[in-house]
Design a protein that fits this description.
The chain has about 70 residues and is of the alpha+beta class. It contains two helices and four strands, in the order H-E-H-E-E-E.
Amino acid sequence: YSTNKAKIEESTHIFICDYHSGIYALAGQDVRMIIKGMVYDVLLIDNPMEMNEQLEIYLRKVGAWDGC
């Protein structure tokens, strides 16, 4: 992952939500999301144009969550 473009190209989904400083603070850390029983690796958390209006979270689908 030498550039952001590589991360975006490997994403399978994009999650868009309102801006939240706590979520944006997770950028650059190893984070996963569980959405409707499916696990996603977070590849990039983007604050478009640094406007603090919304976040675009680029995800790669990993598989089903086993509940652990």
